[in-house]
């Protein structure tokens, strides 16, 4: 953390020695070099715990330890020797802590006691669990309408905790489940079912071994799902082309040195990953995809006229899809001039990519936030589905669509009922199993919850994990709304910004982490999670809890439920929490896809949840897979001001969402700072700016409100024209709450129109900016 500010290009491959060095620094910083290493040995092992980092699957959870720098950092972050104790809170008022940076807050260490806010002293004071639960119960019981409370979930929560949480909240009477996935892959959950009938990916890990080519749109595996690098490296070494579309030349998409490979490590060798890396404009993906599809459709027509083999998979298209005619019409009408302008790529480049795609018998299409976090995110996803369908790449071995999920159990939380739009048959089964009437009206997602808060219609906010106040858009308005609440409750492992932006009453409820032993009445428990490829497996911690006062997430949910619902509850909360097998039995009763849950999850590697699309069964209204047309090419046609740039908010290599491991971003050559904006030399010169200048970024808002971040350093970088990038969460004040996909409500964090002005204030304090004040 003593790293000096610098911008210094990184010339090494991703992974390798640089990763090992970074990790050892991090372990020492957390005070756990020895324990950390032992803990890491149990990660993703048959009897160990699931990595709390990303949702990328591990080869059957049976292999030997696979080194992953960022997974290791996530573990070390949780297994730290540092503690955030009542003495710490006694020594610092909330006002004082509000001036600390996000990095400083989490570095205090693991929370040890339940704490309640005391307005008289402006401090958090220790409180007993029973008192804490009764405060929750008191506030929830007096609300005239259960819909005046919001129940947030962050995707680290286990299936067991998530199921109990939705049970409690639905018995209480609302479907208000804003969820981190509303800011993440909601575009997938909403967009993909219309195309192929499921809102999840269709590939398994073994498909990566069989793919002839892999296309990666807007996803940064070297940082955000590093275990995927093993699969990409294997594919590259067997000669399968990997084609990436990303405004950044992300290092891991270029070159990777495998820490697992003694030869690469000893010889300082590396593997070239992408055969082509196209620097697409921010928001230019649909233009690329349409360009590729245009080539496919035209070449197919030409080939068939000459009686050569078809390019499209006509058996599949005729047997399994509808809507190709309309798509082909649209592609015909789409001009190359517009495709080039919107994507920032040449026709030649796009044709080249199309030819690689055309030649592949089995293609995997991978994507991440570069596709989903846009104003037309759900439609972006559907265009990728079109591309896969044209050549029958769904439901074929070695091929498919692969959304890379974020949090380690964000997919599982959805599967077990964390959704603001529950299906009627799920609610019917819940009602039959438990005997209460769940609410039928749809609830709030993140955006609509914040809108309701701003209108003053919400009184209580409960968060199962996460750091809501930092992850959300439009801080100036949304944080004020959080401050106006009667009660905020955070189930957390570490101190974060959300504890400081609190309601009149506020609770911090500290929970066990995934690396820790969870003992209940029947003995030690394991929890279960679902990865990005719908594999469900068990996870059991080994470390002693960070404090004897911690409760597990399921126990905390049960405590809140008992205090809120009391005698009127039809659920025996104690019985369920005593033995998590009983929670899994209940999940199985409500969700038939979990049949024989307890037995199957005990098999090494767990089990796969069926995906209909993988079996070429189409759970859509038409009963077929649907080709869907995207009107036009661009994201948003309203702002054509020549000064406007498209801002993409991105992650550094040293952060986990709002958690900062350091202020550096090694692969992009940034050290000791995060208040920076990347843009290319051409855009700089147009504005009379130079590398190192200080600027303000100002949103081109349509509602008349000013959204500005101050005094960012300009970094001249290889980046497409017309766009720029800055780090999340520092740039979140620039994302207007109204800027979201109208279909999936995903905030457009990767496509905000901004202007750049010379800095108005010469204030170098990052803290004030980070706290958004
Ligand atoms: N270490 C670590 N691991 C993580 C996380 C973390 O913060 N740290 N977060 C977790 C979570 S919750 C998630 S959702 C995932 C996120 O993982 P990713 O999906 O990889 O998310 P980002 O890093 O936000 O952005 C992805 C990439 O999109 C590119 N990009 C930006 N705009 C565009 C665009 O318009 N088009 C295209 N084609 N590309 C674009 C960026 O340059 C970046 O390389 O990772 C998960 N894993
Ligand atoms: N501008 C912009 N905004 C974004 C994004 C972006 O790319 N750009 N990305 C969005 C995405 S993809 C996501 S997923 C969200 C993330 O939003 P969140 O999921 O809300 O945020 P995190 O930073 O992952 O939450 C970190 C906190 O989780 C708590 N925690 C960690 N482990 C545990 C645990 O085991 N149990 C419990 N109960 N708590 C735990 C700790 O207290 C920690 O401080 O942010 C979104 N916001
Ligand atoms: Mo995410």
Mind explaining what this structure looks like?
Belongs to the prokaryotic molybdopterin-containing oxidoreductase family. Its EC number is 1.-.-.-. InterPro entries: Asp_de-COase-like_dom_sf (IPR009010), MopB_CT_YdeP (IPR037951), MoPterin_dinucl-bd_dom (IPR006657), Mopterin_OxRdtase (IPR006656), Mopterin_OxRdtse_a_bac (IPR010046), Prok_molybdopt-oxidoreductase (IPR050123), YdeP_MopB (IPR041953). Residues 110-490 form the Molybdopterin oxidoreductase domain. The protein has 773 residues and is an alpha/beta fold. It folds into four domains: 6-78, no CATH class; 85-177 and 418-511 and 550-578, Rossmann fold (3-Layer(aba) Sandwich); 189-403, Dimethylsulfoxide Reductase, domain 2; 645-764, Barwin-like endoglucanases (Beta Barrel). The protein contains 33 helices and 33 strands. A six-stranded mixed β-sheet has the order 6-5-18-17-16-7. A six-stranded mixed β-barrel has the order 25-32-29-31-30-33. It has a five-stranded parallel β-sheet with strand order 12-9-8-14-15. Helix 15 (285-305) runs parallel beside helix 21 and helix 24 (446-454) packs across helix 26. The longest helix has 21 residues, at 285-305. The model is unreliable at 764-773 (pLDDT under 50). The structure holds ligand MGD (2 copies) and molybdenum atom. One ligand MGD binds next to helix 11, helix 20, strand 25 and strand 26.
Shape: globular
Termini Cα gap: 24 Å
Strand count, sense and closure of the main sheet? 6 strands, mixed
How many structural domains does the protein architecture include?
A: 4
Please state the second-level CATH architecture of the largest domain.
Answer: 3-Layer(aba) Sandwich
Number of strands: 33
Count of alpha and pi helical runs? 33
The CATH class label of the largest domain is Alpha Beta
State the secondary-structure class.
alpha/beta
Bound molecules: ligand MGD, molybdenum atom
Strand order of the largest sheet: 6-5-18-17-16-7
Measured on Cα atoms, how large is the radius of gyration?
25 Å
Amount of helix: 25-40%
Low-confidence stretches at least 5 residues in length (pLDDT < 50)? Answer: 764-773
């Amino acid at each position: 953390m003593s790293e000096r500010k610098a911008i210094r290009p990184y010339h090494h491959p991703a992974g390798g020695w640089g990763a090992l060095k970074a990790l050892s620094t991090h372990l020492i910083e957390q005070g756990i070099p020895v324990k950390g290493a032992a803990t890491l040995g149990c990660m993703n092992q048959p009897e160990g715990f699931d990595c709390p980092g990303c949702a990328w699957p591990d080869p059957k959870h049976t292999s030997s330890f696979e080194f992953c720098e960022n997974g290791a950092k996530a573990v070390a972050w949780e297994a730290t020797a540092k503690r955030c104790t009542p003495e710490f809170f006694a020594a610092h008022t909330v006002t004082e802590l509000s001036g600390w940076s996000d990095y400083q807050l989490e570095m205090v260490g693991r929370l040890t006691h339940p704490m309640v806010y005391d307005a008289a002293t402006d401090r958090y004071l220790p409180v007993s669990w029973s008192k804490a639960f009764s405060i929750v119960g008191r506030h929830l019981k007096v609300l005239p309408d259960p819909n005046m409370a919001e129940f947030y979930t962050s995707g680290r929560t286990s299936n067991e905790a998530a199921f109990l949480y939705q049970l409690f909240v639905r018995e209480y009477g609302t479907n208000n489940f804003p969820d981190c996935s509303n800011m993440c892959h909601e575009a997938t959950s909403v967009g993909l079912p219309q195309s192929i009938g499921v809102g999840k990916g269709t590939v398994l890990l073994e498909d990566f071994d069989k793919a002839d080519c892999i296309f990666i749109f807007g996803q940064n595996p070297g940082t955000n799902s590093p275990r995927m690098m093993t699969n990409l490296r294997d594919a590259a070494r067997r000669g399968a082309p990997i084609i990436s579309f990303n405004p950044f030349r992300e290092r891991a998409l270029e070159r990777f040195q495998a820490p697992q490979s003694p030869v690469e490590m000893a010889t300082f060798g590396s593997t070239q990953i992408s055969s082509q890396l196209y620097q697409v404009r921010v928001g230019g993906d649909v233009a690329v995809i349409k360009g590729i599809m245009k080539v496919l459709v035209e070449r197919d027509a030409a080939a068939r006229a000459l009686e050569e083999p078809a390019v499209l998979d006509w058996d599949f298209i005729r047997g399994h899809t509808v809507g190709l005619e309309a798509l082909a019409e649209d592609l015909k009408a789409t001009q190359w001039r517009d495709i080039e302008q919107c994507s920032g790529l040449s026709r030649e480049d796009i044709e080249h990519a199309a030819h690689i795609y055309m030649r592949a018998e089995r293609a995997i299409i991978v994507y991440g936030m570069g596709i989903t976090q846009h104003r037309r995110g759900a439609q972006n996803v559907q265009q990728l589905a079109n591309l896969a369908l044209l050549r029958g790449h769904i439901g074929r071995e070695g091929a498919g669509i692969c959304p890379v999920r974020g949090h380690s159990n964000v997919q599982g939380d959805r599967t077990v009922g964390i959704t603001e739009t529950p299906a009627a048959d799920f609610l019917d089964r819940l009602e039959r199993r438990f005997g209460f009437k769940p609410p039928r009206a749809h609830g709030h997602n993140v955006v609509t919850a914040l809108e309701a808060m701003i209108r003053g219609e919400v009184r209580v906010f409960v968060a199962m994990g996460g750091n809501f106040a930092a992850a959300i858009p439009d801080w100036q308005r949304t944080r004020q709304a959080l401050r106006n609440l009667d009660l905020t409750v955070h189930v957390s492992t570490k101190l974060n910004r959300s504890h400081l932006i609190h309601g009149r009453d506020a609770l911090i409820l500290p929970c066990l982490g995934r690396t820790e032993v969870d003992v209940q009445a029947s003995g030690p428990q394991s929890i279960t999670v679902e990865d990005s490829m719908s594999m469900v497996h068990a996870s059991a911690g080994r470390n002693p809890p960070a404090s004897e006062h911690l409760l597990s997430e399921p126990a905390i949910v049960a405590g809140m439920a008992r205090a809120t619902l009391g005698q009127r509850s039809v659920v025996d909360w104690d019985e369920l929490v005593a033995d998590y097998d009983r929670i899994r039995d209940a999940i199985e009763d409500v969700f038939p896809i979990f049949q024989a849950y307890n037995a199957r999850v005990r098999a090494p590697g767990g089990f796969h949840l069926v995906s209909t699309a993988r079996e070429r069964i189409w759970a859509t209204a038409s009963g077929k897979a649907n080709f869907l047309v995207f009107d036009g090419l661009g994201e948003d046609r309203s702002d054509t001001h020549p000064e406007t740039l498209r801002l993409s908010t991105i992650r550094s290599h040293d952060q986990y969402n709002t958690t900062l491991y350091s202020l550096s971003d090694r692969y992009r050559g940034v050290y000791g700072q995060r208040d920076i904006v990347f843009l290319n030399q051409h855009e700089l010169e147009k504005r009379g700016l130079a590398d190192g200048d200080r600027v303000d970024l100002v949103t081109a808002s349509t509602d008349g409100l000013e959204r500005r971040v101050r005094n960012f350093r300009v970094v001249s970088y290889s980046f497409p024209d017309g766009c720029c990038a800055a780090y999340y969460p520092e740039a979140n004040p620039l994302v207007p709450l109204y800027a979201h996909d109208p279909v999936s409500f995903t905030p457009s964090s990767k496509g905000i129109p901004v202007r750049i002005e010379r800095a108005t204030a010469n204030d170098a304090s990052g803290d004030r900016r980070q706290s958004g004040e």
